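Here is the promised in-class demo. Please do not try to memorize the tokens; focus on the logic of going from shape to residues.
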């Protein structure tokens, strides 16, 4: 089985425009995600799947300068973009990672890949139901199953968000979810989606350094939320 990680990233974010190339404590958001993914085990490659829009040309130039594989596809039909990316790179399955996740934990990805390889699943996930923070979401998706999904739904929401159709029709798919019993994760969001998220992540990394793992990042999020950050 050929596996890879596909990072979904674009510059035309409505709430935080250009966020993929915004620097957080001196390092761009997309580079922070890619740096984390270097610790993932047993994948053939990491690809950034962005859009065909000219607005994403600077992102593509940045990634190509770093030597990262890039796929460009549909702006709104992200499920179609995902399938075409996976097919283009010969991936039997892939890890879906959001490009707004600078605290993504490679150990979670390694766990999800192991679960996938040990079973016969369409989807391995940690968000059904969610027990990890936003920004620590991991999904390992069978390319053939996602291809099938394209024929089952034309709903724009399903196609934009890729996996909701699986979860809404869970009885028709082989889905494996893994959980966390860490109650400190409740209500924690480590994704970068707004200017406030950016300020918080910058404070966390500048104050506590680059060695923040998922548990420490969750603790610092809660510290910020209690208004104890000075």
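The designed amino acids, position by position:
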């Amino acid at each position: 089985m050929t596996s890879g990680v596909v990072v979904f990233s674009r510059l035309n974010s409505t709430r935080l425009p250009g966020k993929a190339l915004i620097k957080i404590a001196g390092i761009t958001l997309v580079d922070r995600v890619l740096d984390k993914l270097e610790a993932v085990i047993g994948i053939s490659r990491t690809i950034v799947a962005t859009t065909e829009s000219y607005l994403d040309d600077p992102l593509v130039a940045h990634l190509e300068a770093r030597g990262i594989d890039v796929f460009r596809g549909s702006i709104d039909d992200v499920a179609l973009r995902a399938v075409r990316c996976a097919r283009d790179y010969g991936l039997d399955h892939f890890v879906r990672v959001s490009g707004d996740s600078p605290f993504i934990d490679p150990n979670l990805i390694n766990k999800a890949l192991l679960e996938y390889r040990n079973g016969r699943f369409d989807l391995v996930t940690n968000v059904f139901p969610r027990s990890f923070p936003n920004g620590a979401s991991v999904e390992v998706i069978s390319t053939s199953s996602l291809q099938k999904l394209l024929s089952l739904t034309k709903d724009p929401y399903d196609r934009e968000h890729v996996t909701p159709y699986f979860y809404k029709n869970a009885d028709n798919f082989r889905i494996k979810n893994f959980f966390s019993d860490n109650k400190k994760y409740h209500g924690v969001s480590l994704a970068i989606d707004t200017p406030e998220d950016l300020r918080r992540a910058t404070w966390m990394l500048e104050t506590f350094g680059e060695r923040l793992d998922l548990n420490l990042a969750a603790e610092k999020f809660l510290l910020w939320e209690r208004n104890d950050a000075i």
